[in-house]
Design goal:
Blueprint lengths: L5 H14 L4 E9 L3 E7 L2 E7 L5 H13 L16 E3 L2 E7 L11 H15 L9 H13 L9 H11 L8 E3 L8 E4 L2 E4 L6 E3 L1 H5 L4 H6 L5 H19 L9 H16 L1
Antiparallel strand pairs: 1-2, 2-3, 3-5, 4-5, 6-9, 7-8
């Protein structure tokens, strides 16, 4: 979310929280990407705010409620307010339980793998309509093909990304997190918790594992390593494409896009 939009987005979250009886005199920005995550104080709730036209918050709420009931390792909704999407001033706001993160060492790969395996187990027990990973891949393909959306992408790099994104996705489908990278994993005193469920989709578990550090895939049971390698290069092509979107707001995104293109060339070479 652009810096110019932040004051209005924060104001919408704070005013809604006040109407719901949550004391919110201060707001700390925890994460800012396509939506902004705020820690509201002193009520200690996490608010997620996105422009109304860009959000799919109800989808995320529905999945979170089902996964919480299934006992999955996610950071769930705040129980003090009705679990729904609140709208104000052109922004959609949802309220989530805030979890203090544990300090110390990085997440152990074995713990990461165990938590993701447990999340996948819970996901197999719920019924929810979700897009397929190929739908997300198609969005990246559209960006590559639409030159006015990716004007700075060189033609040779455009052809490289297109060739990778056209590859089929094999494997057994199930509900996935969609982007269980380290930025979407909280290390809490009670264990690891996954956040940001708006990316949930259907596909093979190897697609999820492709977002995690390589050591995690080595410890996840029953992985098809060949498929995992295919998914890793596919995911790398997807996130590289997003960094070349003219509207991308990811910090230092263009530099990362160049680095990742080099990785793809080295892998393909």
């Amino acid at each position: 979310m652009r810096a110019s939009e932040l004051p209005r987005a924060i104001g919408a979250a704070v005013s809604i929280a006040a109407d719901l009886g949550l004391a919110a005199d201060d707001a700390v920005v925890l994460q800012n990407s396509n939506k902004v995550s705020l820690r509201l104080l002193p009520c200690d709730v996490m608010a997620r705010v996105a422009p109304v036209q860009d959000q799919i918050a109800q989808f995320e709420i529905d999945i979170a409620q089902r996964l919480t009931a299934a006992g999955s390792p996610i950071a769930g909704l705040d129980p003090r307010v009705e679990p729904r999407v609140y709208e104000r001033a052109g922004y959609a706001v949802t309220f989530w339980t805030f979890h203090e993160t544990a300090t110390g060492d990085e997440i152990a790969p074995a713990d990461y793998a165990d938590a993701l395996h447990e999340l996948h187990r819970a996901m197999r027990t719920i019924e929810v309509r979700a897009p397929h990973v190929t739908d997300r891949i198609a969005q990246a393909q559209h960006l590559v093909a639409t030159r006015d959306r990716t004007p700075e992408l060189a033609e040779a790099d455009r052809e490289l990304l297109d060739s990778v994104l056209r590859r089929p996705v094999h494997g057994t489908d199930q509900l996935l997190h969609g982007e269980p990278h380290p930025g979407n994993v909280l290390k809490t005193k009670g264990g690891l918790l996954f956040i940001d469920l708006e990316t949930c989709c259907r596909g093979p578990v190897e697609f999820d594992l492709a977002h995690a550090p390589e050591d995690v895939g080595d410890r996840y049971p029953g992985v098809d390593q060949g498929l995992l390698n295919e998914c890793r290069i596919l995911v790398l092509a997807m996130i590289t494409t997003w960094r070349w979107d003219r509207d991308d707001q990811f910090p230092d995104g263009r530099r990362l896009g160049m680095e990742w293109l080099a990785e793809i060339r080295a892998y393909e070479g």
